[in-house]
Amino acid sequence: MPVITVEEMNVFLNEHFPQGEKFGVLTGMGDAWAEMRLPVDDEHLRPGGTVSGPSMMALADVCMYAALLGQIGLVPLAVTTNLNINFMNKPESGRDLVARCNLMKVGKRLAVGEVWIRSEGCEEIVAHTTLTYSIPVER
User: Is 19 helix (H, G, I), strand (E, B) or coil?
Assistant: First the structure.
């Protein structure tokens, strides 16, 4: 099983996704999990002052990607095949978002995980996401 540090993953994400900082910053990872933070600013907001759905989707997607690559190694061509998100509560104004992904299953060709998003310092879930990733045959 690959052992990838947060620092190595952040370097990989910066090299392969230079726009990635808009999607969040990896803050922790381990065996089948990853955590990210989205420093919310004006570019993430929609009318009414809440964080936009696409911003939360991107945060969840990159969090799952980091968790998966922590398991299978730095495979750039692992791709999202399904993302389902339930927006549950309005994010707290002026707080960063925190996401945690737990992988549910990593097979030979597919991986499934869940991501919970909260406003920093709050217990209330802002969004719940399930994702499926396709894993390339040749790694």
Answer: coil
For the chain, how many structural domains are there in total?
1
Q: Pick the closest to residue 116 from 81, 94, 87 (CA basis).
A: 87
pTM over 0.85, yes/no = yes
Token pair 């299978």: residue: 72
Residue 28 lies in a domain: yes
Q: β-pairing, 33-38 with 97-106?
A: antiparallel
**Using 50, 70 and 90 to split pLDDT, how confident is the model at 19?**
confident
Instruction: Give CA–CA dist 50/57, Å, rounded.
Output: 14
Distance between CA 126 and CA 112 in Å, rounded? 20
Whether 1 maps to a domain, the answer reads no
Residue span of the structural domain in which 34 resides: 6-134
Q: How far apart, in whole angstroms, are the C-alpha atoms of residue 39 and residue 22?
A: 8
What does the block give as tokens for 84? 């389902």
Asked if residue 139 is part of any domain, the answer here is: no
Work out the number of other CB atoms within 10 angstroms of the CB of residue 127: 22
Share of the chain above pLDDT 90, in %: 73
